[in-house]
Amino acid sequence: MADVERSLVEEHSLDRDCTTLSRHVLQQLKSFSADAQDLSALMNRIALAAKIISRRLSRADLVEGALGFTGNVNVQGESVKKMDAYANDVFISVFKQSGLVCRLASEEMEKPYYIPENCPIGRYSLIYDPIDGSSNVDINLNIGSIFAIRRQQGDDIDGEATDLLQDGHQQIAAGYVIYGPSTMLVYSIGTGVHAFTLDPSLGEFILSQENMQVPDHGPVYSVNEGNFWQWDESIRDYIRYVHRHEGYTARYSGALVGDFHRILCQGGVFIYPGTVKKPEGKLRLLYETAPLAFLIEQAGGRASTGTQNLMDVVPEKLHTRTPLIIGSKEDVALVESFIQERARESKEAIASRS
Ligand code: FDP
Questions:
Q1: In angstroms, what is the span from residue 145 Cα to ligand 1's centroid?
Q2: Residue 170 CB neighbour total at 10 angstroms
Q3: Distance between CA atoms of 162 and 153, rounded to whole angstroms?
Q4: Which of ligand 1's atoms lies nearest the C-alpha of 253?
Q5: What SS3 class is residue 120?
Q6: Kind and range of the H or E element at 262?
Q7: DSSP for 268-294?
Q8: For labeling, which of 90, 190, 214, 247 is most exposed (least CB within 10 Å)?
Q9: What 8-state DSSP symbol labels residue 20?
Q10: Res 11 pLDDT > 70
């Protein structure tokens, strides 16, 4: 075969059949109903936000004012990066005129952003972490955006968004965008987990992996071991266990989305436990842990706080935090077994003293 012909065949065989995100959502729902059209349009808007953020990130070091801190501190008490503020605003501007959502709740905002009355108001809430892994932004390492969609319940007349204070089962869709060597969007609407890769030449997210399944066990444990002495003894027990047994390897990127994506693809466990000072840990339920729990369950894995199924946790407030143990079924169960063992021992110790 001539070289030109061969390269044409290779090029063709590498091409996907170009399933776009909106088409995929409708295929998954097997419907053209108003609800299905809304969900497809919502995912399309999230994809648009992802493309805008991805474009800015890809040139961030060349754009004046793209990197560094704004000088403000957010509701979490964290210094806000310019990219956090930018990405937060991108989601708002993409959804403001869409007629799809009534409000957007983000990790960066103390209260949700309500769609103004002069704009079309939709039935859904978008809940999101605009930039996850902010410490990676200024050094050109992978970061992400996390999102979930919930249907508004009630009228929210007092503007407190209390209907969002419900467990993870109320999410009708969840996913994340990973801005890495390529930009990927991974989502679920309750029919499995599917990944799309942004083809910059087309400006489209194209289906790259369908029905992703996390292996039941994997070699990776992903945790910030710098906090070792801040943890409960049970988590230290687990870390000692993996240090002493063959077949484990540590990976921690400083961006939850990146570490989660590795585990989704290859198996293992990501842990962000509580610490002595912060028993509830660092990660936010509505914006981070519940959306990823939704995804991992759809992929055949598990998410836990250590003592409770993550999807069952009801937040007390919009910015409630939870410990997170997430990934392969067997690896999550192993971490939980150390927590249960220590709990049993301390119960017995209390009983023997009384
Ligand atoms: P960041 O604060 O940099 O946005 O969302 C919180 C998060 O990143 C996760 O993405 C990441 O896994 C974790 O915090 C890193 O925290 P530590 O530096 O405490 O390990």
A1: 12
A2: 18
A3: 9
A4: 12
A5: coil
A6: helix 256-266
A7: EEEEE---SS-TT-S-BIIIIIHHHHH
A8: 247
A9: B
A10: no
C-beta separation of 175 from 186 below 8 A: yes
User: For 334, what's the count of Cα atoms within 13 Å in the CB-facing half-sphere?
Assistant: 23
Whose alpha carbon is nearest atom 20 of ligand 1? 224
**Rounded distance from Cα 255 to ligand 1 centre (Å):** 6
The closest of 83, 10, 100 to 46, measured between CA atoms, is 100
Whole-angstrom Cα Rg for the chain: 21
Q: Which two tokens stand for residue 2?
A: 């001539």
* Closest C-alpha among 256, 258, 248 to residue 221: 248
Helix (H) or strand (E) holding 232: none
What type of residue sits at position 251?
Answer: R
96-154 pLDDT, tens per residue?
Answer: 999 999 999 999 999 999 999 899 999 999 999 999 999 999 999 999 999 999 999 98
Give me the helix-helix angle, 34-58 and 21-29, nearest 10°.
150
User: Are residues 192 and 2 in contact, defined by beta-carbon separation less than 8 angstroms?
Assistant: no
- Enumerate residues 6+ apart whose C-beta is below 8 A from 328: 214, 215, 216, 217, 218, 263, 267, 268, 269, 301, 302
Report the amino acid identity of residue 135.
S
Using the atom order of ligand 1, give the atom closest to the CA of residue 135: 3
Q: Residue with structure tokens 């059949």? A: 17
Type and span of the H or E element at 146: strand 143-151
Contact 255/136 with Cβ under 8 angstroms?
Answer: yes
Bridge-based pairing state of the strands 324-327 and 249-250: unpaired
Q: CA 88 to CA 53: how far, in whole Å?
A: 10
Residues having CB within 6 Å of any atom of ligand 1: 132-135, 224, 254-256, 282-283, 288
Per-residue pLDDT, 353: 84
Alpha-carbon distances of 96 from 163, 164, 232, 262, rounded to whole Å: 21, 19, 44, 33
Distance 80 CA to ligand 1 centre (A): 13
Where residue 158 falls among pLDDT bands split at 50, 70, 90? confident
3-state secondary structure at position 221: strand
